[in-house]
C-alpha cells in the first residue's frame, strides 16, 4: 500500500474530526446517501440496520466527516450523476465507469464506516480493543485507496478491479431498490429506468463468469424479479470466489496506478467453489420474498430450480414481457 495517501485502516482511524477520505482535520460532514437521492425517493426517515441487527439509523442521519475539498469533489460528482439519472438508462450509460465506481463506492464505504464506528464503540464499552484481521485491513484499505481517485492522482490501468453491470430496468417511478454487502463490498440499485450492480473488488471475474447471461440480456428491459435474480447470482458467486484479488500498485511522478492482476490458479482449486442449488435457492427466496416466492417454490422435487432469467432446459433468456408478476 502506498504511503503517500491516508489509509484509515492502518491505525483504524474512524473519528468525527478526520475526513473519511483524505484524513484532513474537519468539522464538516457529507451525507452517506446523496441528499438529492434521499429527497427524490423520500426514504430519509426510513431506518437501516447494522449487520448485527441491534442498531439502526435513519438514512438521513448517516453522515461522514468530510473536508471542504472532498465535499466540493462529491458535490460536482453528484451534479453529474443526478443529471445522468434524469435521462434514465441512457444517461447513466454515458457516465464513465470510474464515476459510477466513485459514486456508488461512497455509499458502500459510508455504511462500512458506520459499521467500524459502531463496533469500535461496542468493544470500548466492554473494555476491549478494536481490531480487524490483516485480510480485512488489506481489503478495505485497497477499496479506500481506489475511492481516493476522486481527489488524488490515482488512476486505473489495464484490467479494472471491479465487475460493473448497468442495464435497462422496468420499475414503478416511485420505487427505489437498494442492497449492499459492506464486508464483501457489493452494491445494487434498481430505480425507474435502470439497474446497477457493482462488485467493487473481484477484478472483474464475476462479470466474466456471468458473461453468457449478460449477453442474452442485451436489448431487453429487465423485470425487477430478474434484476433480483441477477444480483443473487453475483452475490453468491462472490461468496464462492476462492482467490483473493491481487493488484499491481505503483507510485511514479506523484501518480499512483492500480492494475488488477490475472488470477493465478493452483491445481485442484478452481476459481469458484462448488455451486449449491439449495443455498442459491435460499438466497433467491430472500430477494423474492416481496413476490411471496419461497425456497420451496424455487426447489421442487424432480423439477429444475425456478428461474426468471433462463428457461431451465433450453437456457434461452426469458422475455421480461412474458413475466406476469407486478413491477
Mean pLDDT level? 94
> What oligomerization state is this entry in?
single chain
* Contiguous helical run count: 11
Q: Which structural class best describes the helix and strand composition? A: alpha+beta
- Strand proportion: 15-25%
What is the H/E string? HEHEEEHHHHEEEEEHHHEEHH
Q: Choose one word for the global shape.
A: globular
Structurally, the number of domains stands at: 1
- Radius of gyration (Å): 20 Å
Poorly predicted sequence stretches spanning 5 or more consecutive residues:
none
Number of strands: 11
Main pleated-sheet profile: 4 strands, antiparallel
User: What is the percent of helical residues?
Assistant: 25-40%
Gap between N and C termini: 45 Å
The largest sheet has its strands arranged as 6-9-8-7
List keywords for this structure.
11 helices, 11 strands, three-stranded mixed β-sheet, alpha+beta, globular, 327 residues
Question: What do these coordinates show?
Answer:
Helix content is 38%, strand content 16%. It is of the alpha+beta class and 327 residues long. It is globular and about 60 Å long. The N and C termini lie far apart (45 Å). The model has no long low-confidence stretch (mean pLDDT 94).
Give the SSE map.
Elements: H1 8-11, E1 29-31, H2 35-41, E2 47-49, E3 56-58, E4 63-65, H3 68-86, H4 88-93, H5 97-125, H6 134-147, E5 154-156, E6 163-169, E7 177-181, E8 186-191, E9 193-199, H7 205-209, H8 211-217, H9 224-240, E10 247-252, E11 255-260, H10 277-287, H11 295-298
Parallel strand pairs: 5-11
Antiparallel strand pairs: 1-4, 2-3, 6-9, 7-8, 8-9, 10-11
Amino acid at each position: 500500500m502506498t504511503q503517500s495517501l491516508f489509509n484509515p485502516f492502518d491505525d483504524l482511524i474512524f473519528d468525527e474530526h478526520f475526513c473519511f477520505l483524505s484524513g484532513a482535520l474537519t468539522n464538516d460532514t457529507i451525507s452517506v446517501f446523496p441528499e438529492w437521492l434521499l429527497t427524490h425517493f423520500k426514504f430519509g426517515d426510513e431506518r437501516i440496520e447494522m449487520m448485527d441487527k441491534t442498531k439502526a439509523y435513519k438514512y438521513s442521519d448517516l453522515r461522514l466527516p468530510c473536508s471542504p475539498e472532498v465535499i466540493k469533489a462529491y458535490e460536482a460528482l453528484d451534479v453529474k450523476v443526478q443529471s445522468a439519472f434524469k435521462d434514465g438508462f441512457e444517461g447513466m450509460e454515458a457516465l464513465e465507469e470510474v464515476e459510477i465506481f466513485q459514486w456508488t463506492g461512497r455509499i458502500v464505504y459510508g455504511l462500512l464506516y458506520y459499521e467500524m464506528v459502531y463496533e469500535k464503540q461496542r468493544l470500548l464499552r466492554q473494555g476491549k480493543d478494536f481490531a480487524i484481521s490483516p485480510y480485512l485491513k488489506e481489503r478495505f484499505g485497497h477499496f479506500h485507496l481506489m475511492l481516493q481517485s476522486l481527489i488524488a492522482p490515482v488512476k486505473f490501468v489495464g484490467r479494472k478491479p471491479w465487475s460493473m453491470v448497468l442495464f435497462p430496468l422496468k420499475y414503478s417511478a416511485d420505487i427505489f431498490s437498494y442492497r449492499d454487502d459492506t464486508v464483501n463490498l457489493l452494491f445494487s440499485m434498481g430505480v425507474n429506468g435502470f439497474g446497477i450492480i457493482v462488485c467493487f473488488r473481484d477484478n472483474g471475474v464475476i462479470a466474466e463468469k456471468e458473461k453468457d447471461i449478460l449477453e442474452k440480456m442485451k436489448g431487453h428491459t429487465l423485470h425487477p424479479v430478474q434484476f433480483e435474480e441477477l444480483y443473487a447470482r453475483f452475490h453468491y458467486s462472490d461468496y464462492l470466489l476462492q482467490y483473493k484479488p491481487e493488484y499491481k500498485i505503483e507510485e511514479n511522478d506523484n501518480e499512483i496506478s492500480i492494475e488488477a492482476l490475472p488470477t493465478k490458479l493452483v491445481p485442484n482449486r478452481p476459481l469458484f467453489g462448488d455451486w449449491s442449488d439449495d443455498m442459491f435457492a435460499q438466497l433467491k427466496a430472500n430477494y423474492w420474498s416481496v413476490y411471496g416466492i419461497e425456497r420451496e417454490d424455487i426447489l421442487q422435487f424432480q423439477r429444475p430450480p425456478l428461474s426468471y432469467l433462463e428457461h431451465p432446459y433450453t437456457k434461452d433468456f426469458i422475455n421480461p414481457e412474458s413475466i406476469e408478476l407486478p413491477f
